[in-house]
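Subject: sequence -> C-alpha cells, single chain

Hey, anyone have a minute? Need the predicted structure for the following. Not urgent.
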Amino acid sequence: MKKTFKEVIIAILPMTILIVLLTIIFAPLDSESMISFLIGAGIMMLGMALFLFGADYSMMEVGDLLGKFLIRKRNFPLLVGLAFLIGIVITIAEPSVQVLAQQVTDISDGTISRTILIAVVSIGTGIFLVFAVLRMVFKFSYLKMMAVGYAAILVASFFTDPQFMPIAFDAGGVTTGPVTVPFILSFATGLTSMVRQGKNENDSFGMVGVSSLGPVLAVMLLGVIFR
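Reply:
Had a minute. Here:
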C-alpha cells in the first residue's frame, strides 16, 4: 500500500503544484476555492491509491486465474463466450466510458443516448477482445491483425457521419483506462501461461491494442446508422 501511495503522489503531486501556480499567476482564486481544490486533490490521491491497491489484489488476480481456468477447461465456445462477456462487463465498469457517454449525451441534446453509446462501445470491445484471444490461441500475426483493423477503420471513415469520428477515437481511448487495462493484461497473462507454456511471454501483450479497435469501429458504424 505504501508503494502504491508513493507512486500516486509522484504522478499527481507535480500536476497539482502546476495547476496551483498557474492559478495564482493567471487566474487567482479566493481562499475558499483554493482550499476546496487542495482538499479535492488530496482526496483524489487517496482514492487513486486505494483503487490501484484494490486493482492489484483483486482485478489482476481474478483476471489471471480466469485466464488459466478457461485454458485448463479446453472449451473453445466457453473461452470465446466469456471473452466477449468480459469485454462488455469491464467496459461498462470503466469510469472513463461513463464520463464520455454522459458528455456525448449532453452535447448532442440526447440525440445519442448514454445507454446506446455505452452499449455500442462495450459490444465493440467484447468482439475485439474475442479477436485478441483468437490471435493468441491460433498464433495470428499481431501486425497483420492491427493492419486489417486500421484498414477497416479507414474504410469506415468514408461512410460514417463526420461528427462521429472524434467520438469514435475518444471511445477507443477511454476503453484503455484503469479498469480495463489491468484486467485484460492479467487475463492475457493467465491465458499465455497455459497456452504457450512460457515459450513466448510477449504473447500476453497486444490484447489491449486489439481490443481498443473495437470501440472505434463500433462508434463509426453507429455514425453510419445515424447518417
